[in-house]
Specification:
Elements: E1 16-18, H1 21-31, E2 36-39, E3 47-54, E4 57-63, E5 68-72, E6 78-86, E7 88-92, E8 97-101, E9 104-108, E10 114-118, E11 123-130, H2 131-142, E12 156-158, H3 165-177, H4 190-204, H5 210-218, H6 223-233, H7 242-249, H8 253-263, H9 268-285, H10 293-299, H11 305-316, H12 320-336
Antiparallel strand pairs: 1-3, 2-5, 3-4, 4-11, 5-10, 6-9, 6-11, 7-8, 7-10, 9-12
């Protein structure tokens, strides 16, 4: 496939234009990730940058107007998904060097030192996603217990030979953004688009957790895992230890740990924590609930409120208090709004 809407952002006046190479580095460091951009031969640039925000994600169209080099140290909070619209980029992340010509797509890893050589006619369309959003998408896709950085394969994908749902979705969003009446950037829509982009990225492209997602789709869990899961679901508010879970599952604690590692790619305690967080969110969102955040946390088996809040934010991208306030505000609005 080719991007049918590569110029969708052209309707937006450039947020930034310059001919000064020094200004390019400062601007790109704030817009993407810290870096040093150098225009070849010390020439004046013809740089332009347009962007739109979708919740915590953003879409950018960038043109340097001259051959350039980019040197960016590791920056873990951000992952960049880059479409080459014209020209060519030569990318070195320390784990592999590859070319990204026009019509290709690649993912620039957050935890890698990045060096890019850009041709004079290079132009890019880049989706900027928070690493935390991708981590949540990976948890939702397979309950994977992340033990390290998420690292995508160092390669460029030819969109003609390997079309993807991610590319089609970005193309669709860009087409919609070209409309003056588009609602994509509104708070009611943008966060959903952000989550979909993150979910497509972690499920469609190779990374260091792909084998866990594939194994989860191929292998049904054995009876000991299913019995332990059922036992935990029925007792989310109770204090549960490994000996008790193992007895309920009908195996030793060590065997249960190994089974969860093999078939759920996590531990029984981490799996239980995710189910408790999901139940807590259900209760926080319940419009008829008058329970406090503290009461809900305790009811779902959390005894350390600070840890509950930290795990909740990682899983859902907001604090428990934010969810609770939003639910109560919405309920109040429904009560006070007269029916037609």
């Amino acid at each position: 496939m080719t991007m049918t809407n590569p110029d969708a952002l052209q309707r937006i006046p450039p947020q930034f234009r310059t001919v000064d190479p020094e200004e390019i580095s400062r601007h790109m460091s704030s817009a993407f990730r810290p870096n040093r951009s150098t225009v070849s031969g010390g020439e004046r640039a013809d740089f332009s940058h347009r962007s739109l925000h979708l919740g915590g994600a953003s879409i950018h169209q960038v043109r340097y107007g001259r051959a350039a080099q980019v040197d960016a140290p590791p920056f873990e909070p951000v992952v960049l998904a880059m479409f080459t619209l014209s020209g060519c980029a030569t990318i070195d992340q320390g784990d592999g060097r590859f070319e990204a010509p026009a019509g290709s797509f690649c993912i620039l890893n957050a935890a890698r030192h990045l060096k890019i050589g850009l041709s004079a006619d290079f132009e890019q369309l880049t989706v900027r996603l928070d690493s935390a959003t991708l981590a949540r998408a990976l948890l939702e896709s397979g309950d994977c217990d992340l033990r390290g950085d998420l690292a995508f394969a160092p390669c460029a994908y030819d969109l003609q030979r390997h079309p993807s749902g991610f590319a089609r979705f970005v193309d669709c969003i860009c087409g919609e953004l070209s409309r003056d009446a588009s609602r994509c950037t509104t708070p009611a829509v943008a966060p959903h688009l952000e989550r979909t982009l993150a979910g497509l990225l972690v499920t469609e492209f190779r990374h260091n957790y792909s084998h866990l997602l594939e194994a989860d789709r191929r292998s049904p869990a054995p009876a000991v895992v299913r019995r332990a899961e059922e036992y935990m679901r029925e007792r989310l508010g109770e204090a549960l230890g490994m000996p008790e879970l193992a007895r309920a599952a009908g195996c030793s604690p060590r065997s249960l740990q190994q089974a969860f590692r093999q078939f759920r790619h996590t531990t029984p305690s981490a799996w239980l924590r995710l189910r408790r967080l999901e139940r807590a969110r259900e209760l926080l969102l319940a419009s008829g609930s008058d329970a406090s955040v503290t009461a809900i946390a305790y009811a779902c088996g959390f005894t350390h409120l600070s840890k509950f809040a930290a795990h909740y934010r990682l899983r859902f991208g907001e604090s428990p208090q934010q969810t609770w306030r939003q639910a109560r505000t919405g309920a109040a609005a429904r009560i006070t709004t007269p029916r037609s």
